[in-house]
Amino acid sequence: MHFRKATATDIPTIIRLLADDELGSARESTEDYVVNDYVEAFTEMEAQSGNQLILAIDDQKVVGCLQITLIPGLARRGMKRAQIEGVRVDRHYRSHGVGQALFEQAISIAKSEGAGLVQLTTDKQRADAHRFYERLGFRASHEGMKLLF
């Protein structure tokens, strides 16, 4: 397995991964009129320094993805943090170390960019994901909140 940054040609595959579970299937869409929204978002991500989608590749197939965004800030004495979002592993590759390897790659990127912590949010309904993140050493130290428009 190896890792690489996503390109615009990977968008359909990434959408498929994001939609491949009960929660994601209600949030994502591959309808032609929606795909343009993903392309615009990807273009914005590429233009933003410190924001990238990392893909896990096995035998030339995308088997996992995550987004890592480096966030400079003043809190914690000006500590930079890394935010991880959109973590998905192809259902046929789950429990084979892909997720752990993706996180090791993301953490390595965060450290090399001078981040002092890695944070993420996870839906309260994703009990398996919670156990996975805890095995990686993440702790539920804060209560997250969102305001959708």
Briefly say what this structure is.
The chain has 149 residues and is α+β, with helices and mostly antiparallel strands.
Uncertain segments: none
Structural class: alpha+beta
Second CATH tier, the architecture: 3-Layer(aba) Sandwich
Helix content: 25-40%
Q: Which sheet architecture does the biggest sheet show?
A: 5 strands, mixed
Number of domains: 1
In the CATH hierarchy, the third-tier topology is known as Aminopeptidase
Q: How many individual β-strands?
A: 5
Radius of gyration: 15 Å
What this model shows, in words?
- The protein is an alpha+beta fold and 149 residues long.
- The protein has one domain (2-135): Aminopeptidase.
- It contains six helices and five strands.
- The longest helix is centred in the first third of the chain and has 16 residues, at 32-47.
- The mean pLDDT is 93.
Q: Secondary-structure map with pairings?
A:
Elements: E1 2-5, H1 11-19, H2 22-27, H3 32-47, E2 51-58, E3 61-71, H4 75-78, E4 80-89, H5 98-112, E5 115-120, H6 127-135
Parallel strand pairs: 4-5
Antiparallel strand pairs: 1-2, 2-3, 3-4
